[in-house]
Amino acid sequence: MSRTATISLVSYKPLPANAPERLQNTLAAMSVHVDQAAALQSDLVAFPEICTTLGAADPWQFEPLDGPTITAMARKAREHSMYIVCPLALMEGDRRRNSSVLIDRDGSITGVYHKYFPTHGELDIGVLPGTETPVFKTDFGKVGLCICFDLNYHEVGAGLCDSRAELVIWSSMWTGKRMLTKWALEFGFQIGALHAGAASFVDAAGRELTCIERTVADATGCAPLVTATLDLDQRLLHHDYNLDKLKALYGRYGPVAAHVEWLPEECVVVFGSQLADKPTDELIEEFALEPMRDYLARARRDRQRALQGEYRRSH
């Protein structure tokens, strides 16, 4: 039972640092990119870290949630009935934040993520770290947000994993590359990664689905959008203890009941229901399948129990 969403990532070239009316013209360019994503029937479009001030002589120009950036993007979200991820330097009362805002199809704010691990340069100018890794419900799935330096820290990915993120939008100033693979494999979510120079999608098995550099977009004259349609109903399983259960599933529902892609060299299975009336998670529960992230969490818990002399054999 596929549950697809079309996602567009925008990696656009910032205006010159001291361009006149820079914010106004940046918002105008962003609005055009939202229009382009809407023409592709995207459900969500996302922008890079501190997108409106990126490349400015002073990129840390903080504004409130009701400031010009979110106001403009909320209007575009409402116009096209689509979600927008808009990262910005946010002033929250008297607190400075590096944040990413998820705007829904009605132009309302679904949620705000504050960068969990600001760099020393950000801390030095008073950027306050976030303390939560929320996951937000959309009409196509559960979306988590994170920002740039956060990718270095297990606790950010683990928090998104614990909240059952299906798609994580990572807005950044660098590419991430192989670290994205590590996060996807360990935490079991798909990733849309973007910065001013490139954008890519990584599936839950850690495979790069697509990556487009901005120089390629410049050379072809194309809009700087990287767009993919993702099936958010797919899950990543470890192959331990699951293969016989998958055989039982096929025995009950037939040979085309589920998409199963076994990657034995990495000990994982990409799994998704193909039954019209049963989502993947329902089949997982019915056959006691164990997603990769749950298996790793169980092994971590049982390791601790073994150290405490409390472990009891499970098989």
Task: Walk me through this protein's architecture.
This protein has 315 residues and is α/β, with parallel strands linked by helices. The chain folds into two domains: 4-231, Carbon-nitrogen hydrolase (Nitrilase/N-carbamoyl-D-aminoacid amidohydrolase, 4-Layer Sandwich); 235-307. It contains nine helices and 15 strands. It has helices at residues 22-39, 68-80, 120-124, 154-162, 178-187, 214-220, 243-253, 280-286, 292-307; strands spanning 4-10, 44-46, 83-92, 95-103, 109-114, 135-137, 142-147, 167-171, 190-195, 198-202, 208-213, 225-231, 235-238, 258-263, 268-273. The strands form three sheets. It has a six-stranded mixed beta sheet. A six-stranded mixed beta sheet has the order 6-7-8-9-10-11. β4 and β5 (109-114) form a beta hairpin. α1 (22-39) packs parallel to α2 (68-80). The longest helix has 18 residues, at 22-39. It is globular, with a radius of gyration of 21 Å. The mean pLDDT is 94.
